[in-house]
Amino acid sequence: MSVDTAGQANEVAPVSNAALWTGRVMSALVVLFLIFDATIKLIPIQPVIDSMNELGYPPAVGLARGIGIVTVVCIVLYVWPRTAVLGAILMTGLFGGAIASHLRIGSPVFSHLLFGVYLGLLAWGGLWLRDRRVRAMMPWRI
Questions:
Q1: Which long-range contacts (CB under 8 A, 24 or more apart) does 58-61 make?
Q2: Which helix (H) or strand (E) holds 35?
Q3: Closest to 57 (Cα-Cα) out of 115, 66, 36
Q4: How many other CB atoms sit within 10 Å of the CB of residue 37?
Q5: For the chain, how far is it from start to end, CA to CA, in angstroms?
Q6: What is the DSSP letter of 58?
Q7: Residue boundaries of the structural domains of the chain
C-alpha cells in the first residue's frame, strides 16, 4: 500500500509473472554489462587506459580501478533488494558521468552518448517491474 500526495491510501497493483520476469531480465542485462565493465577496469586492460586518455582523463591505472570499485558498489547495492533503489540512484549518477564525458569529446550520439540513457532506462524499468516500492513511487499502469 502507498500514500498519494493527498494522504489517501492506495494499493499498488501486483504485476504479472511475465512482467516480473521481464524486469528481472532487464535488470540482469544491466548488471551483466556493469560486471564486465567493472572487471576490465579493475584488471585494467590497455584499451581501458587508452579510452580514458581519449575521454580526457589521466591514463592512470588507479583511476580506472577506482571507477571499477565504484561500479562494483553500485552493482551490489542494485542487486540487493533492500538497497536496490539506492543502487539505481548511484548507477544513474555513474551513467550521467559517462554521458557527460562522451558529450564533452563529441562522441556519436546514438551509439556512445546515449548509451548511459539506454542503461538507465533498462535499470529503472527493470526495477520498476520487479519492485513494488518503486511502483508505489511511480504509479504508472502497465
A1: none
A2: helix 17-42
A3: 66
A4: 19
A5: 18
A6: -
A7: 27-137
